[in-house]
Amino acid sequence: MKIKYTLLKEEKNTKARYGKLETNHGTFETPMFMPVGTLANVKTLTPEELKEINSAVILANTYHLWLRPSADTIKKAGGLHKFMNYDGPILTDSGGFQVFSLAKAKDISEQGVKFKSHINGEPLFLTPELSIEIQNKLDSDIAMSFDECPAASASYEYMKQSVERTIRWAKRGKDVHNNSNQSLFGIVQGGAYQDLRKFSALETVKLDFDGYSVGGVANDGESKEDMYKAIIYSTEYLPKDKPRYLMGVGDPIDIIEGVIRGIDMFDCVLPTRLARHGHAYTRYGNINIKNAKYKEDFTKLEEDCDCYTCKNYTKAYIRHLVVCNESLGGRLLSIHNIRFLIKLTEELREAIKNDTLLEYKEEFINKYKK
Amino acid sequence: MKIKYTLLKEEKNTKARYGKLETNHGTFETPMFMPVGTLANVKTLTPEELKEINSAVILANTYHLWLRPSADTIKKAGGLHKFMNYDGPILTDSGGFQVFSLAKAKDISEQGVKFKSHINGEPLFLTPELSIEIQNKLDSDIAMSFDECPAASASYEYMKQSVERTIRWAKRGKDVHNNSNQSLFGIVQGGAYQDLRKFSALETVKLDFDGYSVGGVANDGESKEDMYKAIIYSTEYLPKDKPRYLMGVGDPIDIIEGVIRGIDMFDCVLPTRLARHGHAYTRYGNINIKNAKYKEDFTKLEEDCDCYTCKNYTKAYIRHLVVCNESLGGRLLSIHNIRFLIKLTEELREAIKNDTLLEYKEEFINKYKK
Questions:
Q1: CATH node for A4-267
Q2: Which of A46, A69, A298 sits opposite B295 (nearest CB)?
Q3: Which of A23, B46, B201, B277 could form a disulfide with A89 if both were Cys (CB 3.0 to 4.6 A apart)?
Q4: Are B218 and B227 in contact (CB under 8 A)?
Q5: Is B208 considered catalytic here?
């Protein structure tokens, strides 16, 4: 079965949508935040811990799993769900983003992308067809089309050619997609150029995907203003009966701004990456737990947070673990940070239902930027 | 309240004892294995995970906690239990072992030991009185006397002087011990010398501690035969109504041999250290999960193991995590390895109750060394 999105309510004063997403691994409400499980695990955490913080879809990385342990090994395990023992929905990216960022691909042709493995320098060649073939084997619930993700600084001319190629790649991927239990999303690119976003959205929608991603935002050097514009330039042309996924965005304020512009799904490595570096989200802005002022601070990260970490541990203890490089510290912060973003989306859904999203945003930002 | 040990049964054919240990944080059966929580956490694990594998007492390191976050910080937190949110019993060592191994103390006098911090080289001075004072502040259930732990290769003359000094240190520590909720153990030293072990045991028992440790075994260069002899040379002179703790031993066969010689409590960093290096205990010997043969081995570490890891994950998945340096891998192996040793002690208790310990040992070793 493919996923099924149902739009349940549009907020009065914004483009925000409250909806539900039915998958082969459960039904969940949107807007939602999806934690990233790069290598078939959300770093330091178990599936049970993700469920306890009401996590729904998680994201896994096609590029990383292709290299280790390989798509064939995961297929032999019975697919990604069985391999990692996660019975909730899984979304896989196309590998494109990692190829362009991590592996620093230089050789892009119509056929695909030549690059070198970030692990051992081995030459590799990823095509739209191969990306889909790998994702078919991983057997995720939602697969992504293989796209080029140009730098925010790319010229109009380059961006135009890239957008056109990404549409051709999307069609090639869709043509070979062969997994009736897996949905496939198209990706809207076009940088900050309004006409390219429109072109990309309209042409991608013509190919009739199960959902649509907005890509190429939150890139190096892009301003927040450009990012928010790029979202609205894209969502404007997307069908209302399909889910919209803003790729790679996990800053709390960006999530709110994305929801206001009609986004349903978000993912980001930030909550777990920040955690490993000792940072915690709080309603009053992010804190660095390594700061000396927390050494004997026996209060919780957030007194009213309902996560396991805040129910059980003090800042002083978490600081001690982080300062001593004990990985339990990063684990406790990961639980809190992911819960923080998931709680945020729960509150956003309530605000959409009550048509109070703009008030919610103002209140949130006033505290968070204090 | 001090701990209370009750000897429930002696095995017919060996010196093994089945007993119970009442503490301010619950009552538990012996023989028991105690996981090590060096820096106020059993690496990668939460208190709930320790309870799930029937862990009872855990051990924390006085030396490490003295340096970070400091005894005063933990006292301000309300003691070690509150600081780390663990409501089971905690045993603290004296810091002696770390001072002699990790910090490589060179300057031992009657007064105490001068050495340098392994973190920043700062000069430090630890005395029997200070060790007890720190442990009083940590507020563990069981504290250890400060002892010298000479190398197995030490001469008879050196070992004799050291044993005599350790007894004087034990008395000095006991004199300043000031925590009515904390029990204090004396430590028997003497290397592989029968008369020194006897002297050390008898003189330490004269000081009337709440329990007795056998120290200075499992040191570099000591043979298994010498180690087993040192245990029996010590336990022979220890009172039957007090618990006996063999420090730093976690090899499964050594635990069995220790139990046969009358030991009630064991601790070791091995299960978690092996886990971090990708090793797992199994009934058929230890395995290195990084071995290529496990890449597509979709069976459990041990099919009949009742731990969370074996109930949920395959060797192929754990191998993938360990190979990719994902700390969840070490976490899953830690759960299994600790459970393995705790299960071993559960089976040893049954064998003592049934007077079948020697048969159990033979069967275990036949499989394990296969």
A1: 3.20.20.105
A2: A69
A3: A23
A4: yes
A5: no
Q: Find the angle CA(A112)-CA(A118)-CA(A119) to the nearest 5 degrees.
A: 130
Best to test chain A binding among B38, B41, B42, B336 (most A CBs inside 10 Å): B41
* Alpha carbons B300 and B252: distance in angstroms, whole number: 20
Closest CA to B322 of B300, B292, B285: B292
Residue A93 annotated in active site: yes
| Dihedral angle over CA of A21, A27, A31, A33, nearest 10 | -120
Q: Which of B183, B142, B150, B143 is nearest to B166 (CA)?
A: B150
Spacing of C-alpha B168 from chain mean position = 24
> CA B322 to CA B344: how far, in whole Å?
25
Q: What is the pLDDT of residues B260-281, one digit of tens each?
A: 999 999 999 999 999 999 999 9
Query: With respect to CATH, is domain B4-269 assigned 3.40.640.10?
Result: no
Q: Which helix (H) or strand (E) holds A144?
A: strand A142-144
ipTM, interface predicted TM-score of the complex: 0.97
Task: Say which of B93, B139, B141, B147 is annotated catalytic.
Answer: B93
Contact A130, A175 (CB under 8 A): no
State the Cα–Cα distance between residues B341 and B36, nearest whole angstrom: 12
* Cβ distance of A85 and B317 shorter than 8 Å: yes
B43 min Cα distance to partner chain A (Å) = 7
**Orientation angle between helical segments A252-260 and A327-353, nearest 10 degrees:** 30
- Which letter does DSSP use for residue B117 in this model? -
Q: Does the beta-carbon distance from A68 to B313 stay under 8 Å?
A: no
Q: Using a pLDDT cut of 70, give the percent of chain B over it.
A: 99
B125 near A CB under 8 A: no
Residues of chain B scoring pLDDT < 50: none
